[in-house]
């Protein structure tokens, strides 16, 4: 695959796709320790055909963004939380941890080395950063790998869903993760498990699918790559409490923002039959930022929230506050923003 030529990029129409940028970071693990990392221009990985990751899915990943600020600087958002979560995911998949300060430093190196590819302020785009770790040992019997590769690539992306356009979603009959399974880990297998449901949802004209709790199929869990929230008729912010959902850093941040906005945030079970208790609903995640859910179809019945064409006022406010902090336009009272030294 050819390297991305910066002259070929239309900053206002980037979409959400992989582009081969000049630099990525890579570090191998063997003999019980990390061997030292470096930037490389090689966007390929050479693996044994027997590599653990290819057969038994020993992989964990992260998703982050770098945002261009008005003064031309570059912001990261809570990268320490991503470092911690990568290690929590790694623990679940019996993989080594990666030192948190080294993780943040490596992310900064990748952003700095590819800084020309961070979309301009105001374009709605950002540099998506994908740290990941894979088990590389050739194995036939099922056991954890003894060798690993940690890698970080980056690619410029546009708004995942443009502007704050409400989208139609459908409640899936499938599960993405089992109860007591790997739902709390950011790992490839959960996404592999979601591909059929996602494909069917898209073929039926939906933007994506919402999963219910895998034990009873009664409570809302999350979307395939974003957590769910609803704004209650009582004015409160609600988001599911579940052991099979990924602990979203966007969600965690929105819970804090919602408190500041007097929305009395609640993490609780949300019964799929109680949709009429909500005036607004949305999806939260690094890729999705905050995306209004226009409608949710459950067992053939379509439930419309605020509107199918425009975002509700609370969704708009949450988005403006979060994105404003990330881009450096709203005061960062909690110290969430980490600047990249250029
Ligand atoms: C990454 C991810 C999210 C969003 O997490 P953020 O930290 O907000 O980006 C939500 N659900 C799933 C399944 C994910 O993989």
TrEMBL record:
Its cofactor is pyridoxal 5'-phosphate. Pathway: Amino-acid biosynthesis; L-leucine biosynthesis; L-leucine from 3-methyl-2-oxobutanoate: step 4/4; Amino-acid biosynthesis; L-isoleucine biosynthesis; L-isoleucine from 2-oxobutanoate: step 4/4; Amino-acid biosynthesis; L-valine biosynthesis; L-valine from pyruvate: step 4/4. One of its GO terms (molecular function) is transaminase activity. PROSITE patterns: AA_TRANSFER_CLASS_4 (PS00770). Pfam families: Aminotran_4. It catalyses: L-isoleucine + 2-oxoglutarate = (S)-3-methyl-2-oxopentanoate + L-glutamate; L-leucine + 2-oxoglutarate = 4-methyl-2-oxopentanoate + L-glutamate; L-valine + 2-oxoglutarate = 3-methyl-2-oxobutanoate + L-glutamate. Its EC number is 2.6.1.42. Keywords: Amino-acid biosynthesis, Aminotransferase, Branched-chain amino acid biosynthesis, Pyridoxal phosphate, Transferase. It comes from the Bacteria. Belongs to the class-IV pyridoxal-phosphate-dependent aminotransferase family. This is Branched-chain-amino-acid aminotransferase. It comes from Lentilactobacillus fungorum. The lineage of its organism: Bacteria, Bacillati, Bacillota, Bacilli, Lactobacillales. The gene is ilvE.
